Amino acid sequence: MNERVSLGRRLAAITIDWLACYAVISAVSGGIGQMGPERSPSILALFYGEVLVLTILQGASLGQKLFGIKVVRFSDGGELRPLQVLVRTSLLVLVVTAVTYDENGRGIHERASGSILNRV
User: Fold this and answer.
1) Is residue 83 one of the residues assigned to a domain?
2) Segment 31-45 mean pLDDT
3) Is residue 48 part of a domain?
């Protein structure tokens, strides 16, 4: 029915989205030299908004558009309803949060909560 998208294209698209958001936050916060771990929540929030809004409006984020990817309903290939996009994007951000680390090995969720994992 629909042609599937490879993991490589998915990762490339999400990387473009993340780097675009990083560039915007960097530009408005005084440049890359001014970027620190405290900017990560801002990047994540912009990433969430970018993916959410563009997927609702055009069926794809910036990175997905560049790689010829469109998000559609599994059942019939139609456009997603806004609630479906909200659920999809929220779950995506939860995963990104869990796998994005700083120089101390802390994820965004750990920095936001002021926590760190230690071996016992």
Assistant:
1) yes
2) 73
3) yes
